[in-house]
Amino acid sequence: MPVPMVGREVERKEIARAWSELDGSGPRTVVVTGDAGIGKSRLVSAVLADLAPEAATVLSGAARLHSPAPYD
Ligand SMILES: Nc1ncnc2c1ncn2[C@@H]1O[C@H](COP(=O)(O)OP(=O)(O)O)[C@@H](O)[C@H]1O
Ligand SMILES: [Mg+2]
Fold first, then answer.
1. For the chain, which terminal residue's Cβ has fewer other Cβ atoms within 10 angstroms, N or C?
2. Which atom of ligand 1 is nearest to 5's Cα?
3. Index of the ligand 1 atom closest to the CA of residue 42
């Protein structure tokens, strides 16, 4: 059974605010960092689902930690 999103209100608002401040003059960057399992991916998913206006395109990628080259 899926577990509902709990908390992270401050972080969700902060990312939503950065999104709302985009005015075509340039990009904004939000860095989500923390230990494995702390909820980074879940936070990003929850924010993406709530963005207004909705994101037209979402690009995602992943880096391998150690091999063959760190964070390649
Ligand atoms: N705020 C939250 N509410 C409910 N479940 C959460 C929350 N944050 C993380 N989880 C759950 O904990 C697990 C690990 O979270 P995840 O986002 O994959 O961590 P990370 O990306 O930081 O390694 C997942 O099953 C995720 O759904
Ligand atoms: Mg993750």
1. N
2. 3
3. 17
Q: Which residues are in the CB-under-5-Å shell of ion ligand 2?
A: 40-41
Q: pLDDT tens, 24-51?
A: 898 889 999 999 999 999 999 999 999 9
Alpha-carbon torsion angle 63, 13, 8, 1, nearest 10: -80
Question: What are the residue boundaries of the structural domains of the chain, listed by start?
Answer: 9-50
What percentage of the chain has pLDDT greater than the value 70?
100
**Ligand in nearest proximity to the CA of 2:** 1
5 pocket-lining for ligand 1 (C-beta < 6 Å): yes
